[in-house]
TrEMBL record:
Annotated keywords: Oxidoreductase
Organism in which the protein naturally occurs: Amycolatopsis saalfeldensis
InterPro entries on file: Arsenate_reductase, Arsenate_reductase-like, Thioredoxin-like_sf
Keyword Oxidoreductase tagged: yes
Listed name of the protein: Arsenate reductase
Length: 118
C-alpha cells in the first residue's frame, strides 16, 4: 500500500493514523517533496477513474496563478492538466492511497481509508 501525503494536512495525518491502527504495511510518499511524474499521475487517474481536474485543488494560490478555472475540461486538455499537477504538486488532492491490489482512492474521510483495509 502507498499513501501520498502532505504531512501538514490533517486528513493525511488522520489517514496515516488509521493505517497505523490497522497494522497494515504501507509506504509514505511526500508528494510535495517527491512529485509524481506525468506518467505516474496518468496511471493514478486511470485507477481512480477520474480526470485530472477532478483531483485538482482549485482553491490553491497556484491554481489562481495558472488560471485553472478557465482551462477547458476536455479530453484534449487532459495532458495540459496532468503536466500542471506534476509541476505544481500542491494542486493534487490528498491523501491518495493505492492498495496492494491496485485499488486507488482519494481518501479524504475515515470510511474511504477503511474501505482499503484488508
Amino acid at each position: 500500500m502507498e499513501i501520498w501525503v502532505n504531512p501538514r494536512c490533517s486528513k493525511c495525518r488522520s489517514a496515516v493514523s488509521l493505517l497505523d491502527e490497522a497494522g497494515v504495511a504501507y509506504t509514505v510518499r511526500r508528494y510535495l517533496d517527491e512529485p509524481p511524474t506525468p506518467a505516474e499521475l496518468d496511471a493514478v487517474l486511470k485507477r481512480l477513474g477520474l480526470d485530472p481536474w477532478d483531483i485538482t485543488r482549485t482553491g490553491e494560490k497556484a491554481a489562481a496563478e495558472l488560471g485553472l478555472k478557465s482551462w477547458p475540461r476536455t479530453p484534449d486538455a487532459r495532458t495540459r492538466w496532468i503536466d500542471a499537477l506534476a509541476a505544481n504538486p500542491v494542486l493534487i488532492q490528498r491523501p491518495i492511497i493505492t492498495a496492494d491490489d491496485g485499488t486507488t482512492l482519494v481518501a479524504r474521510d475515515e470510511e474511504s481509508v477503511r474501505s482499503l483495509l484488508p
